[in-house]
Amino acid sequence: MRADTRLRPEILIVLGLSLGQSAIYSMVTIVARLTASQPLSQQTATLNASQSARPYLDLTYQLLGIFFSLVPVALALYLLRSPRTSLGLDFRRPWFDVGWGVALAAAIGLPGLGLVWAASYLGINANIVPAALPSVWWAVPVLILSALQNALLEEIVVVGYLVTRLRELGWKLGWVVAASAVLRGSYHLYQGFGAFVGNAVMGVVFALFFIRTKRVLPLVVAHTLLDVVAFVGYALLPRAWFSWL
């Protein structure tokens, strides 16, 4: 069987079960936001929302959501189990992975704050609430797990898996990077156009890094750090600190 005959349906299935599905819903959501009576800048996009008024039922829903969101990751890794394929998820180069992860988080996070401000000022983004869990003992651990889940899902599927498969199909480097970056931006579109642009730029940087190094673990480290700072910082810091946005 030809590689493209086998791989094209596989890619569609993996994305349809994961972030491709999220991208479609996100595009529908932004249309709904733009056609609502309230301007986009006055709407709110809430991440990590509470699922129940009963704390332990809420915790159960949160953990189940994290677990089942990682199933497409397991599928992607299973499909890439060839001895010739390595995503660099091992721990053979810990200092390289952590060092580059921290550097990438700083390189993406600091300009990202400026983009958030600019998008908010221009009115092209919804107001983003990174965490809306109740004040319970498990809130911070769940937010950290959510950050790790986001990182594993996005970096393994959108970078490691998708880049590997598209290159196996013979796509040119520029198209591979563009596909990964646009997909990353698309499933953040529900937050607004600033989120789309910022995440697409992040997607270009991360895809190029993976193509050059063949290691996805630094990207997981970087993404986890970015989300932990956003989620936990928002949950713990006084709301007045965010008023400038």
UniProtKB/TrEMBL annotation:
A GO molecular-function annotation: peptidase activity
Keyword terms of this UniProt record: Hydrolase, Membrane, Protease, Transmembrane, Transmembrane helix
Domain of life: Bacteria
Record GO biological process: proteolysis
Domain named CAAX prenyl protease 2/Lysostaphin resistance protein A-like: residues: 137-228
InterPro entries noted in UniProt: Rce1/LyrA-like_dom
Transmembrane annotation, as ranges: 12-32, 59-80, 100-124, 193-211, 216-237
Protein's name in the database: CAAX amino protease
Species the sequence originates in: Asanoa iriomotensis
Lineage: Bacteria, Bacillati, Actinomycetota, Actinomycetes, Micromonosporales
